[in-house]
Design goal:
- The protein is of the alpha/beta class.
- The chain contains 10 helices and 7 strands.
- It is globular.
Length: 283
């Protein structure tokens, strides 16, 4: 295990004490860095009184559920899987800047039902101190549903959570952010199962060719805008590979295939939003 700085040791111990005080806990478990660290801490603090719960819908990218299962097995925490139905909500489908609020409300509502069935006292999410310094609609959904955020409550930053993950030998310690597939759809364009499947198939194809970080953004008129690391853009100059990319993405359902010459930027779809409506970050 990597050695922790004294301040991080204090925060880790505070986190474990906080979780023990819950008595029992259900963790909203996406398999990302934050929720994996929280699940590990919950397992250490509560043992079989902790459960990790993963929501599954069309917006979950291929392979993510399998990763969640493997991570839960590695951590040793009980793992529940539930179906979420955010796509049936017209406010979610409209894909405005508050989309994440409706998604998280669906997730936490379903999670509360599972917690009640399992006689679990507290529902918790993996948001951290850095997240709480921003205006995020998902955080408002957590507050509305009285979901606890132990990492944030203990003052843990993203960098500290990565250090803690490495200390606990969690494979997600260097995992890049992987928001839901809906975050790839331009604001105002309806979120549909078909569009999510187009994005998922296209990103799966490009990941198989070694692109990471990566986003395939959906824009009006079934146009794909591919974002890859700037030093990977040159690969698309190879005529054979470029033709292969076009064929695959058109087979997925896109009518137009474009490459963003600025390269990958987290949250690039937010560029069209005014400062007052810039509420979804980190996508």
């Amino acid at each position: 295990m990597n050695e922790l700085a004294p301040e991080l040791v204090r925060k880790r111990d505070r986190l474990l004490d906080l979780l023990r005080g819950f008595g029992s806990c259900a963790v909203a478990f996406s398999g990302g860095l934050d929720s994996t660290v929280l699940a590990k801490a919950a397992q250490l603090a509560l043992g079989d009184r902790a459960v990790a719960v993963t929501g599954v819908s069309e917006s979950l990218a291929s392979g993510e559920l399998d990763e969640c299962r493997e991570l839960a097995r590695l951590i040793g925490i009980r793992h529940e899987i539930m179906r979420t139905e955010e796509l049936s909500n017209p406010d979610y489908q409209k894909n405005r800047a508050d989309r994440c609020y409706h998604c998280k409300t669906e997730l936490f509502t379903k999670l509360e039902s599972i917690a009640e069935r399992l006689n679990v006292a507290v529902v918790a999410d993996g948001s951290n101190r850095d997240d709480h310094g921003e205006h995020r609609p998902g955080l408002q959904a957590a507050r509305d549903r009285r979901v606890r955020s132990p990492l944030a409550e203990c003052g843990l930053t993203k960098a500290e959570i990565r250090a803690l993950a490495a200390h606990w030998d969690l494979p997600t310690w260097d995992k890049p952010a992987s928001p839901c597939l809906s975050s790839r759809i331009a604001y105002g364009e309806e979120v549909t199962a078909e569009r999510l499947a187009m994005i998922d198939r296209s990103e799966r194809f490009l990941r198989q060719h070694g692109f990471q970080p990566l986003r395939v953004r959906y824009h009006k008129g079934d146009m794909a805008r591919i974002e890859v690391a700037a030093d990977s853009i040159a690969r698309f100059l190879e005529p054979e590979f470029r033709a292969q990319v076009v064929r695959e993405l058109k087979a997925a359902g896109f009518k137009y295939v474009s490459l963003d010459l600025e390269g990958f930027r987290s949250g690039s779809l937010n560029a069209v939003l005014s400062p007052d409506s810039l509420t979804i970050l980190g996508q």
